[in-house]
Write a structure and sequence with these properties.
Elements (H helix, E strand, L loop, with lengths): L3 E4 L4 E5 L5 H20 L6 E6 L3 E6 L6 H12 L11 E8 L8 H8 L3 H10 L2 E6 L6 E4 L14 E4 L3 E5 L2 E4 L4 E3 L2 E5 L20 E7 L1 H12 L9 E4 L3
Parallel strand pairs: 5-13
Antiparallel strand pairs: 1-2, 2-4, 3-4, 5-14, 6-7, 6-13, 7-10, 8-11, 9-10, 9-12
């Protein structure tokens, strides 16, 4: 396994898989993280206090007063170069309702035109896949997911929007995501989801987490309004859209 080690001062370093990307890269990172966590739990990596995962890299944070920096780097590097158990299953599967209609999908027609597909075909292609959750970043609760069908892979918009509504489902390059907050953004918006994705009062503030997976379920505008009202009134819990839980 080819890796690259990037030192970040005396208290952190990054292990990168430079030749991997997409789901394979994310699963490799996830597998390495599991190995490191096991080593920490069993006392073989004292001083390691945090691990930060990205799509094809992982950063290890340590206390230089406790940990031997060179030893930790060598130990983790050796783990990264061993055959990793890149599991095919998912820890969690979320089936999320999204509406691909009207003003909730402002870029859908353009995506269809550029892809050579009909609007209905774009919806079918996007909603039929199960997407790996690679990492949470950019905004609290913003889950980068993939990989999307090659026919829907386009670069980000040339002119980003200043305001993207919360819940907007976007696509860009090989990934798809849902904006958890209103924010600027340059992804192509093809649907909207009424489910909130982050709340600091939850036991796990981010609804989604790396290692899980998402499938989108098309709904009508009317269903979107009903679900949004039920979620706002707490008649439905966001966590109820988790359909499968286990180690996969």
């Amino acid at each position: 396994m080819d890796i690259r080690v990037l030192t970040l001062g005396d208290s952190a370093f990054t292990i990168e898989f430079p030749k991997l990307k997409g789901a394979i890269g994310a699963r490799s990172v996830r597998a390495l993280r599991g190995c490191i966590e096991q080593e920490v739990d069993e006392g073989r990596l004292p001083g390691v206090f945090d691990i930060i995962s990205a799509s094809r890299s992982l950063t290890v944070c340590l206390d230089p007063d406790i940990a031997n920096f060179n030893h930790v780097v060598e130990h983790v590097s050796a783990l990264a170069q061993e055959p990793l158990n890149k599991e095919d299953g998912h820890k969690e599967l979320w089936v999320l309702p999204v509406c691909y209609e009207g003003e909730l999908a402002p870029d859908l027609a353009e995506v269809a035109q550029r892809s050579g597909l009909s609007v209905e075909e774009v919806i079918n292609v996007h909603s039929s896949a199960i997407y790996d959750i690679f990492l949470i970043g950019f905004l609290p609760g913003f889950a980068f997911m993939g990989e999307i069908d090659a026919r829907l892979q386009f670069p980000r918009r040339a002119s980003p929007r200043v305001r993207v509504p919360a819940g907007s489902v976007g696509i860009a390059n090989e990934q798809t995501a849902v904006y958890p907050w209103e924010s600027p953004g340059g992804w192509h918006l093809i649907a909207r989801c009424p489910v909130p994705f982050f709340d600091s009062s939850w036991a796990q503030p981010s609804l989604l987490s790396p290692g899980g997976a998402v499938k989108f379920r098309p709904i009508t505008t009317e269903e979107y309004g009903d679900l949004a009202a039920d979620l706002a009134a707490e008649r439905i819990a966001p966590q109820s859209f988790l359909t499968m839980e286990g180690e996969g």
